[in-house]
Amino acid sequence: MKAWYNKVSIFLILVSLVYVTYLTYISSSKLLVGAAVAENQDNEVVITNIEEFSTAYYSGIQKGDVIKSINNHKVKRPLEVQKYNSNHVSSIVVERDGEKVKIKPDLMNDGNFTTFVIPLIFYIACLFCCFFILKINESKKLLSALILIIFLLSASLAYLS
């Protein structure tokens, strides 16, 4: 009965690694998450709302920006923005106060540092602890080790999400 505790722990650690990889991908490529768009009178795509503390908020997109292009492809309709929102965005060109501004994803900006980098460091520290717990628990195979690993992974993933 005790033999599966370590196997479950390893499985949970691997699942958490996949999840963190997915979160990292989203954080680095989804510039438009948290931005609402609409078409204005001039048939241009304009940002109508930015959710606070979202990826769009931290990337520098502002309410009222007119989206000119995404990944060097001209944007003519709000539906095109939604299409790019589910794909990798490497750059956005917006018109702000008559000037064109190019926005690129940056994982090391102030917002991402506090909402992503620090939680990622916490997750890595928890993984380090999980591996020590697994090493110590190889011979004993205690349920308490599994519970501690579940707690550490849950706390670090909750902080990262």
TrEMBL record:
GO MF annotation list: kinase activity
Pfam family, one: PDZ
InterPro entries listed in its UniProt record: PDZ, PDZ_sf
Keyword ATP-binding tagged: no
TM region(s), chain numbering: 7-25, 113-134, 141-160
Annotated ranges, domain PDZ: 31-98
Protein keywords: Kinase, Membrane, Transferase, Transmembrane, Transmembrane helix
Entry keyword annotation includes Hydrolase: no
Protein name: Histidine kinase sensor protein
Species annotation: Bacillus subtilis
Lineage: Bacteria, Bacillati, Bacillota, Bacilli, Bacillales
Encoding gene (name): comP
